[in-house]
């Protein structure tokens, strides 16, 4: 009798112990879900309703595809080099193997075309795929999810070694990558970029323009008789709007709809994206040093880059100066632009400081 009662007591005790354990487990689950919800609200991952108008500025001229560009080719497997938490540009890895994809994204009139021309020249003896992402219909939507899916799908399908380039805003590299692409970019002084883009839009390049570029020119309602000084003085949207005054911070902020606003949040988000995602960002005035850093850090693609850059300039294939920004506007106009481009200029100076650190890290004198 006593033995039977003891067994009953053990069964009851085990039952209550199971109940208490279950309560503790579900309490932990609830706490974890609450934490995840808080993190997701503070993050900027895309949501179904996220949208913002895109920048419809397209490539200056049709850029050649490398022979043998193939989408759908499997990415070769190789151990991925882990990066430190402070961001890839501050760990200064060196990539000597060819199993690598470089993703270049830059605002228009910042020097991207020159970098791509350099890569084509270096590619004479190499089998590097150079692929432009110029699907205007997707990019022009300005919607975060379709653009993110489009770019990541393209990057996942390309076979390395490859260089993929675009003028689209920043998007996070997400998905199943055997080895994540290296993000690089090149920027220039926001005032010089604005002047160059304004004059380029009015240049007569109909022989070399793609249909997309022709449509872009037509959409501007260009008044050819107006100079850039006139455009600013008459307060044309093309020159003095909030959109015109925040092109750089919007580029690195991305397609989140909050990035459309010109404010410090957009600026800080752009800085965070640069710190977290970009391997290196150079500047157009220091294009030669930018190529030198790329040559030392990604020799599998950019080896011999500085020498080739000099050869292209000597042959006239690349200009020493931007012909669309040879004549700068008046001091009065520049003063007004500095006020409108204040956050872009702040980000540009911040990028220049980081680029100086990148140069020193590979033994170059700044």
UniProtKB/TrEMBL annotation:
Upper taxonomic lineage: Eukaryota, Metazoa, Echinodermata, Eleutherozoa, Echinozoa
UniProt subcellular location: Golgi apparatus membrane
Protein name: Heparan sulfate 2-O-sulfotransferase 1
InterPro entries attached to this UniProt entry: Heparan_SO4_2-O-STrfase, P-loop_NTPase, Sulfotransferase
Principal subcellular localization: Golgi
Molecular function terms from GO: sulfotransferase activity
Family the entry assigns: Belongs to the sulfotransferase 3 family.
Keyword Transmembrane appears in the UniProt entry: yes
Keywords noted in UniProt: Glycoprotein, Golgi apparatus, Membrane, Signal-anchor, Transferase, Transmembrane, Transmembrane helix
GO cellular component: Golgi membrane
Stretches assigned to coiled coil: none
Annotated Gene3D superfamilies: P-loop containing nucleotide triphosphate hydrolases (3.40.50.300)
Signal peptide start-end: none
Highest taxon of source: Eukaryota
Membrane topology term: Single-pass type II membrane protein
Pfam families: Sulfotransfer_2
């Amino acid at each position: 009798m006593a033995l039977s009662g003891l067994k009953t007591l053990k069964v009851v005790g085990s039952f209550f112990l199971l109940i208490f354990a279950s309560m503790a487990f579900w309490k932990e689950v609830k706490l974890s879900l609450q934490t995840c919800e808080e993190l997701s609200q503070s993050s900027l991952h895309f949501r179904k309703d996220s949208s913002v108008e895109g920048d419809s500025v397209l490539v200056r001229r049709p850029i050649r595809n490398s022979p043998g560009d193939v989408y759908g080719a499997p990415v070769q497997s190789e151990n991925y080099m882990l990066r430190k938490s402070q961001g890839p540009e501050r760990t200064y890895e060196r990539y000597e193997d060819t199993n690598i994809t470089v993703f270049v994204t830059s605002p228009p009139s910042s020097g991207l075309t020159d970098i791509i021309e350099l890569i084509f020249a270096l590619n004479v003896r190499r089998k590097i795929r150079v692929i432009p992402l110029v699907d205007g219909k997707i990019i022009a939507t300005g919607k975060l999810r379709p653009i993110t899916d489009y770019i990541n799908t393209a990057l996942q399908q390309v076979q390395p070694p490859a260089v993929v380039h675009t003028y689209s805003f920043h998007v996070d590299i997400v998905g199943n990558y055997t080895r994540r692409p290296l993000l690089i970019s090149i920027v220039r002084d926001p005032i010089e970029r604005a002047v160059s883009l304004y004059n380029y839009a009015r240049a007569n390049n109909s022989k070399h323009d793609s249909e997309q570029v022709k449509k872009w020119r037509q959409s501007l309602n260009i008044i050819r008789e107006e100079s850039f000084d006139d455009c600013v003085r008459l307060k044309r949207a093309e020159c003095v709007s909030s959109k015109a005054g925040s092109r750089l911070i919007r580029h690195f902020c991305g397609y989140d709809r909050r990035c459309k606003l010109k404010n410090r949040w957009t600026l800080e988000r752009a800085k965070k994206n640069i710190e977290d995602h970009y391997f290196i960002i150079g500047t157009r005035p220091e294009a030669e040093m930018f190529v030198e850093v790329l040559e030392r850090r990604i020799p599998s693609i950019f080896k011999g880059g500085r020498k080739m850059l000099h050869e292209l300039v000597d042959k006239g294939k690349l200009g020493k100066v931007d012909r669309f920004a040879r004549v700068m506007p008046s001091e009065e106009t520049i003063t007004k632009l500095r006020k409108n481009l204040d956050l872009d200029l702040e980000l540009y100076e911040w990028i220049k400081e980081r680029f100086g650190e990148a140069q020193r890290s590979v033994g170059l004198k700044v």
